[in-house]
Amino acid sequence: MGDPKADEFLQELAAIQQTSSKRIALLGSRHVPLMHQHMIEMMSYALVLTGNQLLTSGAIGTNAAAIRGAMRADPSLLTVILPQSMGRQPRESREQLENVMHLVEKPENDGLALGEASALCNQEIVSRCDQLVCFAFHDSQTLLKTCHDAEAQRKLVTLFYFD
To answer: Closest by alpha carbon to 134, among 157, 108, 152, 100?
Structure first.
């Protein structure tokens, strides 16, 4: 018998792939085990390779893995929206982000706490997408609120939990 979580993951992935190309937002926690980062990278690679536009933010963890996959497949189909200006991003993120073709900075949010800026950033990402794929923990308040907001906007939401 197969692993129920793996079966559920494959069903969700099939649902994501069933329709024509879309604008898919891929967001998630900064605290991601390496194996999960590889899975997220493969998912974003496959989504972009099949012609979907990918939107994400610039944080380490889930978003960095999504960026790596999309950049390998087709950098022109990736849009990264930062919660604040590039100068406010950690050095390791800046190095990756310097190669992103479609990068949106939000310097007007530099005076906000990162959590508040991230919530605003996620709202913008959701407003631009057709579908949201999110990787979170059960206590990831900002991400879970983003998922609820996306559902309220009638976006297709696929939520994976790490825990």
So the answer is: 157
CATH 3.40.50.450 fits 21-161, yes or no: yes
Task: Say if CB 112 and CB 136 are below 8 A apart.
Answer: no
Average pLDDT of the segment spanning 6-10: 70
Rounded Cα–Cα distance for residues 30 and 66 (Å): 12
Distances (CA, A) of 113 to 21, 27, 83, 95: 35, 19, 10, 22
Tell if the pTM clears 0.70, that is, is over it: yes
Sheet with 156-161, strands from edge to edge, namely: 102-104, 78-81, 53-56, 23-28, 131-136, 156-161
Rounded to a whole number of angstroms, the distance between the first and last alpha carbons of the chain is 22
Q: Which residue has the tokens 């996620």?
A: 122
Mean pLDDT of the chain: 91
Closest CA to 42 of 54, 58, 57, 29: 54
Query: Residue 46: what residue type?
Result: A
Q: What is the pLDDT of residue 18?
A: 62
